[in-house]
């Protein structure tokens, strides 16, 4: 499952060939790993000195020849500020013992849309693991018509509680005995497992859909099964729906017809290979389906009708990602020859890798204008690679979920390298590291962790980003040959099997001949990561590098790290591998020419945070580097030197001319933070440079607008230029730049907002980003026409995010409006008393209470008596009625 990162990112790919096996590190503010770039080869001799608690232990000398270039660690930060995290924990979690093996499950379902219920029949083929006379099935929020032996046509007695049904069998079943169990059921899923979207068709802008999400143990909310990640079964599914709907389930669609005597069409799906029950899927909606055949694999792309023209952009490179996976894994797609993807509304994840049938959140769909900026590559690759890592080889329990998700995260980056090149690969890893470090500032747990409160606790950045980065470290440590042999053996040895970290360790020890227990213990079984304080001294052709592990060793152990060091000399560059395993390590380097710079772990492969100061001359040199990670980290350290004009000018040069969008964006962000330090003419010239005609990446253009937000009040002779630029950016080719400019207009020109944003108030856009921006701008406005525009947007039909924002503001602010505006808002809220959307009704109650508009009392009383409400809504409408009744009394009515 994918829960993180943006859908417009790229994906995973084949790591570059490394000249040596190694292990490397990274930093919270630098860009991630770097591929080996060609450079001049120089000979370097190194002396390594270990110091533990200030005691000199030994020195070792060795030499090597190597190539490439990189640079630097991070800014200096007080370590105490980094130590405010906690280690979560609770009782040890153990999943229920599997006493029966589920081999095959047949499932036939139809739906009661009005009641949001599933009516179903299922048959399950079991084998007994030992002598027993009862069978426990996972079944939540269900009622049963019958539970019976299919072969003998005999009913069983059973006991039902909130989560399981215990079935008393007719005899003792011996080890190896089989049973075909039948169950007739009606389930009422409580927004778990199976979800109805707009089931009664009350919302004119949201399609009617049904979809499921089984992970971790939620499929048993809508059908009875053995809801255990280590279980495996083949599957047949019959789905009966009105003929206007398309369906999706696992495997092949083998039949689709209206059966005699039925008014519904029944689609028959079958998956011939066994998989975990949490991967069973069902989706229903009014889709268009575009099919593509590549090799022997059929790709089925589901989209809502309005997105058919951009289906190629929405699902771009899907077939190439599968081919990439097959090639690098040396294993063909392991399922029936079909792979389908479908977007669903209100999805509670970004994607779910159901076997052969991935579901994605609806925001993956975009029109031609948004397609210029957006890509679903990372997300699509994440779910595709799960067909091997997670579906073919499945975690044995939820403590081992990172074995599923870590590989998926790793392959997002691997495909970026394959498809987008090294800079995008580095940027992806950089951001993954930052996301993990941000979470680690709050809490740290072992990657493999069985003391969660509920399985959903495992869906965090330790499971995704940290696990992916640790796999990247292991790849670097083992080298390409051993790593890929291990990955392939992992799939071959454990195909259609459930695994844990010890299985993982065994595979990679078998292919490497190495003892990996220290690595596994340090990175998978212990919490945290090291803090490294790095310093160096250079004298001519000699340099000393000192690395101290400065984290709290009472909470985290000392780490063993194997980073590379880059030595930059006048005559060229050289790489050297070192080992860090003490509280303090010192290393001595000597080159043929004068040494200019020395950098620890230039590829940032090691999962470490770095702390160091840097001289202004070194910073200036690194801002001009040819290498992405050097420039990125230099920008992160430039904050300490923004008071100097030379550094400010260099940062401006980077913002306008760097070759990589992420560096330009970061530089513009730094300029925006320190906009007050720049002369207004210079700051404005940088902003004016970032238009669609000169800056191709929308993310950079967006960041440039923040300079205007943070500048001092522009000089009078510049104000017209600023306003004209904002107006032009409101018409930018990117929805997102346009939206940011609209909001900025509301901030900088509150008295003129309505007129400036009026041309965009009716513009349809991707995920309503333009109308959302218009509402935000109007909320900031002092323009007398703003309220009328807000009421108009709030009165749009259907469930829309901008409508919710407008209604929330109007409900909170109506008490301060003049009589005319308040009356118009009250009329709007009066209409919303009967709206099908609960949230909009709650806004209406609050707004009417604030207006004191007792003219709507009869409608409120009628709604209270006739509409089914939850406790919160009922209490709110009663409070509103009391307030309005009191107000009417005060007015003598």
The CATH C-level class name of the domain at 102-280 = Mainly Beta
What's the CATH H-level superfamily name of the domain at 102-280?
A: tricorn interacting facor f3 domain
**Topology, number of strands:** 31
Approximately how much helix is present in the residues?
Answer: 25-40%
Please list the strands of the largest sheet in the order they lie side by side. 7-6-10-4-3-13-16-15
Query: Approximately how much beta-strand content do the residues carry?
Result: 15-25%
What does the largest sheet look like?
8 strands, mixed
Radius of gyration, taken over Cα atoms and rounded to an integer in Å:
31 Å
The CATH level-2 architecture of the domain at 102-280 is identified as Sandwich
Integer average pLDDT:
90
Q: Number of helix segments?
A: 26
Distance between the termini: 59 Å
Overall spatial form: globular
And the CATH topology of the domain at 102-280?
Answer: Immunoglobulin-like
Poorly predicted ranges (pLDDT <50, ≥5 residues)? 4-82
**Class derived from helix and strand content:** alpha+beta
Q: Which terms would index this structure?
A:
893 residues; 8-stranded mixed sheet; 31 strands; alpha+beta; Immunoglobulin-like; globular; 24% strand
Describe it for me?
The protein is of the alpha+beta class and 893 residues long. Among the domains are: 102-280, tricorn interacting facor f3 domain (Immunoglobulin-like), CATH 2.60.40.1730; 713-783, no CATH class; 790-893. It is 35% helix and 24% strand. The protein has 26 helices and 31 strands. β21 (351-352) and β22 (357-361) form a beta hairpin. Residues 4-82 have low confidence and may be disordered.
């Amino acid at each position: 499952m994918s829960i993180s990162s943006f859908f417009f990112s790229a994906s995973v790919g084949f790591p570059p060939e490394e000249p040596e096996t190694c292990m490397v590190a990274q930093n919270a503010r630098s860009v991630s790993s770097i591929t080996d770039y060609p450079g001049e080869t120089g000979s370097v001799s190194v002396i390594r000195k270990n110091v533990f608690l200030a005691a000199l232990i030994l020195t070792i000398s060795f030499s090597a020849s190597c190539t490439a270039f990189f640079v630097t660690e991070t800014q200096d930060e007080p370590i105490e500020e980094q130590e405010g995290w906690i280690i979560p924990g609770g009782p040890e979690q153990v999943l229920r013992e599997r006493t029966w093996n589920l081999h095959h499950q047949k499932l036939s379902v139809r739906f009661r849309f009005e009641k949001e219920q599933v009516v179903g029949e299922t048959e399950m083929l079991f084998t007994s693991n030992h002598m027993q006379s009862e069978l426990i099935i996972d079944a939540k929020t269900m009622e049963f018509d019958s539970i019976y032996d299919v072969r003998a046509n005999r009913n069983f007695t059973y006991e039902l509680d909130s989560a399981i049904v215990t079935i008393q069998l007719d005899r003792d079943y011996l080890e190896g005995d089989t049973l075909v169990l039948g169950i007739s059921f009606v389930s009422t899923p409580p927004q778990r497992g199976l979800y109805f979207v707009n089931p009664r068709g009350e919302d004119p802008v949201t399609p009617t859909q049904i979809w499921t999400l089984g992970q971790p143990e939620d499929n048993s909310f809508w059908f009875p099964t053995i809801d255990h990640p280590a279980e495996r079964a083949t599957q047949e599914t019959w789905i009966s729906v009105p003929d206007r709907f398309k369906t999706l389930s696992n495997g092949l669609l083998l039949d689709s017809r209206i059966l005699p005597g039925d008014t519904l069409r029944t689609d028959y799906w079958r998956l011939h290979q066994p998989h975990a029950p949490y991967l069973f899927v069902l989706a229903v909606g009014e889709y268009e389906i575009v099919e593509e055949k590549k090799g022997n694999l059929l790709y089925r792309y589901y989209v809502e009708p309005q997105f058919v023209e951009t289906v190629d952009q929405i699902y771009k490179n899907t077939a190439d990602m599968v081919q990439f996976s097959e090639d690098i894994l040396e294993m063909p797609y392991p399922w029936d020859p079909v792979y389908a993807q479908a977007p669903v509304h209100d999805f509670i994840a970004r994607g779910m890798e159901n076997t052969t049938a991935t579901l994605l959140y609806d925001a993956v769909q975009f029109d031609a204008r948004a397609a210029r900026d957006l890509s679903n590559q990372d997300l699509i690759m994440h779910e595709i690679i799960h067909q091997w890592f997670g579906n073919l080889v499945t975690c044995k329990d939820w403590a081992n979920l990172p074995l599923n998700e870590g590989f998926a995260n790793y392959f997002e980056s691997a495909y970026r390298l394959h498809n987008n090149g090294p800079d995008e690969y580095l940027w992806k890893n950089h951001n993954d590291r930052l996301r993990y470090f941000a979470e680690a500032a709050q809490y740290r747990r072992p990657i493999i962790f069985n003391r969660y409160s509920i399985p959903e606790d495992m869906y965090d950045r330790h499971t995704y980003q940290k696990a992916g980065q640790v796999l990247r470290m292991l790849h670097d440590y083992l080298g390409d040959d051993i790593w890929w042999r291990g990955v392939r053996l992992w799939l071959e040895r454990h195909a259609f099997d459930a695994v844990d970290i010890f299985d993982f360790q065994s595979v990679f020890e078998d292919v490497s001949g190495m003892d990996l227990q220290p690595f596994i213990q340090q990175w998978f079984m212990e919490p945290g990561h090291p803090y490294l304080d790095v310093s160096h001294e250079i004298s001519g052709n000699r340099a000393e590098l000192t690395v101290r592990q400065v984290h709290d060793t009472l909470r985290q152990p000392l780490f063993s790290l194997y980073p590379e060091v880059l030595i930059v000399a006048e005559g060229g560059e050289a790489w050297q591998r070192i080992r860090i395993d003490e509280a303090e390590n010192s290393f001595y380097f000597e080159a043929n020419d004068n040494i200019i710079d020395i950098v620890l772990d230039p590829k940032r492969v090691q999962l470490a945070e770095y702390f160091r100061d840097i001289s202004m001359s070194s910073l200036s040199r690194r801002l001009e580097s040819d290498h992405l990670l050097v420039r990125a980290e230099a920008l992160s350290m430039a904050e300490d030197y923004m008071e100097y004009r030379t550094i400010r000018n260099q940062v401006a040069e980077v913002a306008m001319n760097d070759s990589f969008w992420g560096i330009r964006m970061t530089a513009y962000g730094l300029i925006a933070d320190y906009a007050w330090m720049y002369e207004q003419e210079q700051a404005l010239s940088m902003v004016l440079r970032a238009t669609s005609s000169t800056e191709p990446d929308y993310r950079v253009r967006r960041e440039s607008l923040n300079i205007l937000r943070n500048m001092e009040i522009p000089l009078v002779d510049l104000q017209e230029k600023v306003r004209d630029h904002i107006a032009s950016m409101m018409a930018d080719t990117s929805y997102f730049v346009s939206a940011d400019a609209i909001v900025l207009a509301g901030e900088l020109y509150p008295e003129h907002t309505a007129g400036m944003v009026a041309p965009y108030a009716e513009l349809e856009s991707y995920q309503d980003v333009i109308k959302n921006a218009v509402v935000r701008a109007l909320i900031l406005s002092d323009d007398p026409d703003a309220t009328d525009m807000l009421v108009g947007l709030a009165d749009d039909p259907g469930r829309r995010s901008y409508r919710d924002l407008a209604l929330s503001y109007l409900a909170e602010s109506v008490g301060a409006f003049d009589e005319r505006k308040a009356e118009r808002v009250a009329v709007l809220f009066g209409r919303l008393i009967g709206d099908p959307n609960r949230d909009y009704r709650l806004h209406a109650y609050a707004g009417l209470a604030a207006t004191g508009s007792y003219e709507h009392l009869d409608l409120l009383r009628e709604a209270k008596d006739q509409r089914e409400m939850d406790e919160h809504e009922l209490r709110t409408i009663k409070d509103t009625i009391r307030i309005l009744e009191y107000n009417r009394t005060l007015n003598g009515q």
